Fold this sequence. Notes:
The chain has twelve helices and 13 strands. It is α/β, with parallel strands linked by helices and about 350 residues long. It starts with 9 loop residues before the first helix and ends in a 12-residue tail after the last strand.
Amino acid sequence: MEVCRLAISASQRGKLISAGYTSLSSLSSLSPSDLARELKISDNEALEILKAASHGSRLDGTGGSHAVVNGAQTAWDMLCEEDLLTHITTSCADLDNILGGGINCNEVTEIGGVPGIGKTQLGIQLAVNVQIPVECGGLGGKAIYIDTEGSFMVERALQIAEACVQDMLEYNGLHRKEFQACQDKIMQSKDFLGNIFYFRICSYTEQIAIINYLEKFISEHKDVKVVIIDSITFHFRQDFDDMALRTRLLSGMALKLMKVAKTFSLAVVLLNQVTTKYSEGSFHLTLALGDSWSHACTNRVILYWNGNERYAYIDKSPSLRSASSPYSVTAKGIRNLASNSKRIKMM
Length: 347
C-alpha cells in the first residue's frame, strides 16, 4: 500500500513523500519522535500518522505474520520468459544489434551522455517507434514521456513520426506478401502524437508523485509499452543538502520503476546527465547521481563522441556483452552512421 492512499491530510502526505517515505514498509521501523523530527511536526501528529500507517498495513494484508510472499518461479520459467521478451527498435540497425534487438521490455535501461549527444532525440525516437504496429514488426504500444527539463519538442516528434511512416511504407515494399495487412495498419503521423502521454515535471516532489502514480495510470492504459524519463537527474542535482535523503528518494524511485517494468512488461528508459569525477589523480566524465545509482538499472548505455562521430557503449548489462556502435542523429531521427554527422570532440 502506498502512502498516497493513507487516511491522512494532503499536507501530511506531501511531507511524507518529500522526505522519501512513499510506502508503508518505509514507515514500519520509525518511532513517533524520529518521524516528528524528520517531518518537522509534533510528536502527536507523527503518532497519528504511524497509527494510520499501521491500520493501512493490516487492511492491505502486509503487516506482521499475515504477510504472504508470492512470485516464486523456476529458472527454466525465467529462461522461457527471456526468449519471449520484446524489444523497441532504435531505428539504428548497428545500435539495435549491440542491444540484442533494441531496448528490452521488462527492464530498466539508463542512457547517459554529454549535452548534444542525442539523448532526447533517442527518447523521442523510442516514444514513436514503440507505436509501430505488430503487423509491421513493432509492438503497437503507446508511450509515457516524463519531461523534467522542458527538452521535449513536439515539432521534432512530428518530424520523427513522419519519417517512421515512410519507413513503414518501405518495409511494406520489402515484404510484399504481408503488404496488405501492414498497409491497413499504417498510422498517420498525427496518430503517433496522440499516443504519447506527456507529463511536464517542475520539482523533485512532482517527479516522485508521478512515479508513484505510474502504476495506476498504466493499469488504466494497458497498451503503454515504454516509460521515458528525460532526465531522471535534473531535479536531484540541486537544492539537496541532505545527501542521505537524496539517496533514499532515488532508491525508492528505482524500486518502483523496476516493479512497473516487470509488472506491465514494458521498457523503462532513464535519460541521465554527466558529471566530473576525480579518480587516479585526474578528472573524467561519468554519469550523474553517484556510484550507488548505477545499480538502479538493468542496462546502462553511455553515449559519447569519438572524434566527429557519435557512439553508444554498453557499460553494464547482465545479458549483453560490452560493445560499441556508431549512430547518427538526422532529420529523420536516429539512424545508422552517416558521413554528414560532424561535431567537435566532447568526450
